[in-house]
Write a structure and sequence with these properties.
13-stranded mixed β-sheet, 31% helix, single chain, Phage tail protein beta-alpha-beta fold, FecR, elongated, 334 residues, three-stranded mixed β-sheet, FecR family protein
Length: 334
């Protein structure tokens, strides 16, 4: 009879104290998706009992720069002294000090470019979505105008963490060691999964996560947590308010993977916003009546011109191509 997977056994597993047979038992236990939520619950509890120190690197760098610029000084420090010539025997020490300062400045420069040093940047092709397979086998489809940062020197033992700017579809591979896959979306939003498929959206308008299958846990600002089930859509606004819903037509959220646009009584102003996100173009509609027009249908458009052509056939509009932006307006009567 197999030993029951319980809290004590999972705590040993998190502490890397389990045997090969015990790890195999936990792996089989996790194949049942109903057990994954309990796994996360105990993992959160274990991490709370085993805190780790993570230095505030940005704050440390800021302090270091203040010191270099002389902006941090002691209020009770010595009075300014008249400059005197340096004794000959101290010149060697002076050159040594200069060498140390130069080395520290070089270190600071490397610190400033730690993003380029520590992460590899994956970007979507111009005007097209792009598909990548990560070192752990996870497949990622990047929407247009999106970027994914992955660790340049490989994933860590505790988690597989990536950083998303834009929108991407993740089909996460489940590893034998059950390491969590973490998508950092900025502004204290994180998606944590074991093995699942979901779409994550992180732009200036807000955050969005649509779960196709499996289960995920969202880390939200102010320490809030949220578990999602298949078919759930999480969306948040710029002010931090959020909601979880079940969209009737989820195709609208995933159509971009096939270079499609899915419109269901969609405002033309929202169509313009989607064009800006997808094709990185500036679309302006000055007439509020035109902005309020609605369209429907599923259309394939690989670039902005394709979609503009479709709009010109659906609506009586004029398309004006300016140097820095595209203007949509109602045609002037002859």
């Amino acid at each position: 009879m197999k030993k029951q997977v319980n809290k004590h056994l999972l705590f040993d597993f998190f502490s890397e104290k389990t045997t090969l047979m015990q790890r195999k038992l936990i792996e089989e236990w996790l194949e049942d998706s109903e057990n994954q939520e309990l796994y996360y619950k105990y993992l959160d509890e274990w991490e709370a009992q085993h805190p780790q120190f993570f230095p505030d690197l940005d704050k440390a760098l800021q302090t270091y720069q203040f010191v270099l610029e002389g902006e941090i000084s002691s209020k009770e420090g010595p009075e300014p002294m008249e400059e005197v010539p340096m004794p000959e025997q101290n010149r060697g020490r002076w050159w040594l000090l200069r060498g140390l300062v130069a080395a520290s400045v070089l270190f600071a420069a490397l610190f400033l470019y730690r993003k380029e040093l520590m992460y590899q940047s994956l970007k979507s092709a111009a005007g097209h979505s792009s598909t990548y397979r990560l070192p752990d086998g996870t497949q990622v489809i990047l929407n247009v105008n999106s970027e994914l940062l992955i660790p340049r020197f490989g994933f860590g033992r505790e988690s597989r963490e990536v950083i998303l700017f834009g929108e991407a579809n993740f089909n996460v591979t489940h590893t034998r060691s059950h390491t969590r896959f973490v998508v950092n979306m900025g502004d204290h939003y994180q998606v944590e999964v074991l093995g699942t498929e979901f779409v994550a959206y992180s732009r200036k308008e807000g955050k969005r996560v649509f779960l196709s299958r499996g289960k995920v846990k969202l880390q939200l600002p102010e320490g809030k947590q949220l578990y999602m089930k298949p078919g759930n859509l999480f969306s948040s606004a710029q002010d931090g308010t959020f909601k979880v819903s079940t969209p009737v037509k989820p195709q609208e959220l995933t159509a971009w993977k096939e270079q499609m646009f899915y419109f269901d009584n969609t405002l033309l102003s929202d169509v313009a916003r989607q064009m800006e996100e997808r094709f990185n173009v500036n679309v302006r509609i000055s007439d509020p009546l035109l902005s309020a027009r609605r369209i429907g249908g599923i259309y394939r458009a690989e670039n902005a011109d394709d979609l503009l052509q479709i709009l010109s056939e659906l609506l009586p509009i004029e398309i004006i191509q300016n140097q820095d932006y595209i203007e949509l307006r109602i045609p002037q009567n002859p």
